[in-house]
């Protein structure tokens, strides 16, 4: 049997590196290549489509190997990361030419899907978040998000539902979890797929997390961030910072703050609503989202902010109107609008550029870009400062073009600087005298060599004499064989070719040393000066980050104006009323996708807690019921992000929650359309109603039998009507039987989306009109859809017969009449009763500060409450 040979020293080094990050794919630099071995090579060759070979590693067996040229890293690395791989990059830490033994190597970066600093992996319009989720002992969850490419660090804590919603909105590329909570995470977020990475449990402890955060931010406590009393959030945030250490990301000065998501400031949109209203992503592959219609931003920061704004509409009337005022200003001042547009096109992604400064990854070319961006801010600042619009004036005041930095970059860096410092020609002339002198030597070398060539040719009488350079023995003189006899004796022969010989001379060697020495020194000086400049820019990180946020804001608001002009939107009135009044409203997305020549039919609508609280909207299939429901929510939502709306006019009394529930079979493709899920979600809506909720029910109850469906729909609408919140509700349904409700419930009104029947054919008028509708026209739609005529005919006959027998429609309607008059009324909650004892109990409970209650105090309180109910005092 062959004796196993020991691994080569290089393989030993490789294995040691691999051991440091066993779960990462290791790219191991060998010469001009990045190589992968063993299982890594198999995976890499599959993902990258590169050839899998084998090499002997010094042992008896050979190992799989796959590699690619080092300069192709930017092409291949994103593919690996996008495939969900964590990639450790092992580089040569010394010049292989100078290494005496094995080249020193080390892991210089661990790139994981959630921790990407720059390059082509990042989508310019999207954040790339890393998240951490912590489960505390009860059912409170802490969550933190970090985008290392922008420095944004956000945290919150709350119920599993709330954290689920945040995860859906922030769409992290990687989620850190505690090892012991793997199953809990999987169970809690079973609806979404996340790439998770498990960390040891001790990392998820408050003490470790707090220490880490305090050390990073160099503060004494976390009060300034508003998270001091949010242990779960603190723990998740600490875990995120821990992971940066683990992945060798230690230069993170651009993470300057930790912000708490103030959930109470934003409209609550459950994740079904976000998906159903297609706010940021369409449901169908070829669809369009609201975001894609209104995102006319010009800068990547603006695009990322717009994404956030759409998912987090505001609830504060003043804040909304401040945004609307700026949009209005840009509307009335085309010059200001044009100036912002022109300058923003020059700004680029300063947010990510400045992050690259912090992590030490900025290239000379990017530094020039940063300078251009800062210079582009100057005219924007002037325009804003000169405006009489308060928000703009304040933006103008805060914008800081950091002139010191831009002037220094302008002075020191070549405007055509290359992408890498090592390429040279980065630092301008006049910055460093020694550098200038060395460059003179280096630049004049060509002239010098030409002169030397001519001089030696004349001296020796060899006309074809040539001076050239190669890597083996540097500069040499080449003489063709015909003139060999004229070569002076002091020349030293170095190489014999077929037709010529090559020589070196003393003078040439001395000169060579000077030039090569100069080039090395030039490289060193350039690198040093560049490094010093980058270090100086580091001091301006917070200022540039503020600029970036302000520019993003301007970009979004200016984009709103352009969208409003292009799409004929109008300014909504947003106030504290409880009404929604929309005149000639349209669906912002559908209207953009209609075939040419077809106009969207606008509709008006009034909803109010006092009179028209619930609208039952009937109408045939395809009439436009869903479109109407959605456009109402979208108009309210657009108004609350500060955008003009697709309506002639709109008055929106602030909405604080938008709920959407679409009938089971409407989202069957999502694989979760069981009737059970529909009911669970409907229940969650009903349990969370508020006075300012806007509820959309689209064909609720259709996943079950007609009687069941109608009964459930009826009961739900009745509940919403009777609930003291009087939540505004649009209820689209095919059950025209529900029209009976309007007779007995004051705030329920019937509407239908009109169709006309001309010559036995349905014509969609798409107008919302008062009153219920008697037919479903389902059979007509089947006909339009191309159903064989015989089936359509037969269906018509069956329907007639059923109606004649009073089986579906009429009896049910008559029965429902009885239901309506026999309504028992809901016992909504015992707190609504006028019983003084219960009121006292309620007051006792409401007065409790649960956060500051010890278990013992809680027990005593419970005893007190019991005493109130039983009328006995303690100890009786
Ligand atoms: N106001 C309108 N103007 C022009 N086209 C419209 C309008 N409303 C709806 N449409 C078009 O009609 C199609 C059907 O509308 P929608 O899905 O709202 O109908 P529906 O009544 O909810 O139908 P179903 O009951 O089958 O779900 C939409 O995709 C849209 O293209």
Which descriptors apply to this entry?
alpha/beta, MutS, DNA mismatch repair protein, domain I, MutS, DNA mismatch repair protein, Chain A, domain 3, seven-stranded mixed β-sheet, 27 strands, binds adenosine-5'-triphosphate
Describe the structure.
The protein has 876 residues and is α/β, with parallel strands linked by helices. It has 6 domains: 9-111, MutS, DNA mismatch repair protein, domain I, CATH 3.40.1170; 119-261, Nucleotidyltransferase, domain 5 (2-Layer Sandwich), CATH 3.30.420; 295-402 and 540-567, MutS, DNA mismatch repair protein, Chain A, domain 3, CATH 1.10.1420.10; 433-533, MutS, DNA mismatch repair protein, Chain A, domain 3; 573-774, P-loop containing nucleotide triphosphate hydrolases (Rossmann fold); 830-870, no CATH class. The strands form 5 sheets. Strands 13-23-24-25-21-26-27 form a 7-stranded mixed sheet, with helices on both faces. The protein has a 6-stranded mixed sheet with strand order 3-4-2-1-5-6, with helices on both faces. A hairpin with a 2-residue loop joins strand 1 (25-30) and strand 2 (33-37). Helix 6 crosses helix 7, helix 12 packs antiparallel against helix 14 and helix 14 packs antiparallel against helix 16. The longest helix has 33 residues, at 506-538. The radius of gyration is 36 Å and the shape is elongated. The structure holds adenosine-5'-triphosphate.
The tally of structural domains comes to 6
Ligands, deduplicated:
adenosine-5'-triphosphate
According to CATH, what is the topology of the largest domain? Answer: Rossmann fold
Structural class: alpha/beta
Highest-level CATH class of the largest domain = Alpha Beta
The helix count comes to: 30
| Strands, total number | 27
Major β-sheet annotation: 7 strands, mixed
- For the largest beta sheet, what order do the strands appear in spatially? 13-23-24-25-21-26-27
Rg measurement, Å: 36 Å
Which term fits the overall shape?
elongated
> What distance separates the N and C termini?
91 Å
Mean pLDDT: 86
What fraction strand? Answer: 15-25%
The amount of helix comes to 40-55%
């Amino acid at each position: 049997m062959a004796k196993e040979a020991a691994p080569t020293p290089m393989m030993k080094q490789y294995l040691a590196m691999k051991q440091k990050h066993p779960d990462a794919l290791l790219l191991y630099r060998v010469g001009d290549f990045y190589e992968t071995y063993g299982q890594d090579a198999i995976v890499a060759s599959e993902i990258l489509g590169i050839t899998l070979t084998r090499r002997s590693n010094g042992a008896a067996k050979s190992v799989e190997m796959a590699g690619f040229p080092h300069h192709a890293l930017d092409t291949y690395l994103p593919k690996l990361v996008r495939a969900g791989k964590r990639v450790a990059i092992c580089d040569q830490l010394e010049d292989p030419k100078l290494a005496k033994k094995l080249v020193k190597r080390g892991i210089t970066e661990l790139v994981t899907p959630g921790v990407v600093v720059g390059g082509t992996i990042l989508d310019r319009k999207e954040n790339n978040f890393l998240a951490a989720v912590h489960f505390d002992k009860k059912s409170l969850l802490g969550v933190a998000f970090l985008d290392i490419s922008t420095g944004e660090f956000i945290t919150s804590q709350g119920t599993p539902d709330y954290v689920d919603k945040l995860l859906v909105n922030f769409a992290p590329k990687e989620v850190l979890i505690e090892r012991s909570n793997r199953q809990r995470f999987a169970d809690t977020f079973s609806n979404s797929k996340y790439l998770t990475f498990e960390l040891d449990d001790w990392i998820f402890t408050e003490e470790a997390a707090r220490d880490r955060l305090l050390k990073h931010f160099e503060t004494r406590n976390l009060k300034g961030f508003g998270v001091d009393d949010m242990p779960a959030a603190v723990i998740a945030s600490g875990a995120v910072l821990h992971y940066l250490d683990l992945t060798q990301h230690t230069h993170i000065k651009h993470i300057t703050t930790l912000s708490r998501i103030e959930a109470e400031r934003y409209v609550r949109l459950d994740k079904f609503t976000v998906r159903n209203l297609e706010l940021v992503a369409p449901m169908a592959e070829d669809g369009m989202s609201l975001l894609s219609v209104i995102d006319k931003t010009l800068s990547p920061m603006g695009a990322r902010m717009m994404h956030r704004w759409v998912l987090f509409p505001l609830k504060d009337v003043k804040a909304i109107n401040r945004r609307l005022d700026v949009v209005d200003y840009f509307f009335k001042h085309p010059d200001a609008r044009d100036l912002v547009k022109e300058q923003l096109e020059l700004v680029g992604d300063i947010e990510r550029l400045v992050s690259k400064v912090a992590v030490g990854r900025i290239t000379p070319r990017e530094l020039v870009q940063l300078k251009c961006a800062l210079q582009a801010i100057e005219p924007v600042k002037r325009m804003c400062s000169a405006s009489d619009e308060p928000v703009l004036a304040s933006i103008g005041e805060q914008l800081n073009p950091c002139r010191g930095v831009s002037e220094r970059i302008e002075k020191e860096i070549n405007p055509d600087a290359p992408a890498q410092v090592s390429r040279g020609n980065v630092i301008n002339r006049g910055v460093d005298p020694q550098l200038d002198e060395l460059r003179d030597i280096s630049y004049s070398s060509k002239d010098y060599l030409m002169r030397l060539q001519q001089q030696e040719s004349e001296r020796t009488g060899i006309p074809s004499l040539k001076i050239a350079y190669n890597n083996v023995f540097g500069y040499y003189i080449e003489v063709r064989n015909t003139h060999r006899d004229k070569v002076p004796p002091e020349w030293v022969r170095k190489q014999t070719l077929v037709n010529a010989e090559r020589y070196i001379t003393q003078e040439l060697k001395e000169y060579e040393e000077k030039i090569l020495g100069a080039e090395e020194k030039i490289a060193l000086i350039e690198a040093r000066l560049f490094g010093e400049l980058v270090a100086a820019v580091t001091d301006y990180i917070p200022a540039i980050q503020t600029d970036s946020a302000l520019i993003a804001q301007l970009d979004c608001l200016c984009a709103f104006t352009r969208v409003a002009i292009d799409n004929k939107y109008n300014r909504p009135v947003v106030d504290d009323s409880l009404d929604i009044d929309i005149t000639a409203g349209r669906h912002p997305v559908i209207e953009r996708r209609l075939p040419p020549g077809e106009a969207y039919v606008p509709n008006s609508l009034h909803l109010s807690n006092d009179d028209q609280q619930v609208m039952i909207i009937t109408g045939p299939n395809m009439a436009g019921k869903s479109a109407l429901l959605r456009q109402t929510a979208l108009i309210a939502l657009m108004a609350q992000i500060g955008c003009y709306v697709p309506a002639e006019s709109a008055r929106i009394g602030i909405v604080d929650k938008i709920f959407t529930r679409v009938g089971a079979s409407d989202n069957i493709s999502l694989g979760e359309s069981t009737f059970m899920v529909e009911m669970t979600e409907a229940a969650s809506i009903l349990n969370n109603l508020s006075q300012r909720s806007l509820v959309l029910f689209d064909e609720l109850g259709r996943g079950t039998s007609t009687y069941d469906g109608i009964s459930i729909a009826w009961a739900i609408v009745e509940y919403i009507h009777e609930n003291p919140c009087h939540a505004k509700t649009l209820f689209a349904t095919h059950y025209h039987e529900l029209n009976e409700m309007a007779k007995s419930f004051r705030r329920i009104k019937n509407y239908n989306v009109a169709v006309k029947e001309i010559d036995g054919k349905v014509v969609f008028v798409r107008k919302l009109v008062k009153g219920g509708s008697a037919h479903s026209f389902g059979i007509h739609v089947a006909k339009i859809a191309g159903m064989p005529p015989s089936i359509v005919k037969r269906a018509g006959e069956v329907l007639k017969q059923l109606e004649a027998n009073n089986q579906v429609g009429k009896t049910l309607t008559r029965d429902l009449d009885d239901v309506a008059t026999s309504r028992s009324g809901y016992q909504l909650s015992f707190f609504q009763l006028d019983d003084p004892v219960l009121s006292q109990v309620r007051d006792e409970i409401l007065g409790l500060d649960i956060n500051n209650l010890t278990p013992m105090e809680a027990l005593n309180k419970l005893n007190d409450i019991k005493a109130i109910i039983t009328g006995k005092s303690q100890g009786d």
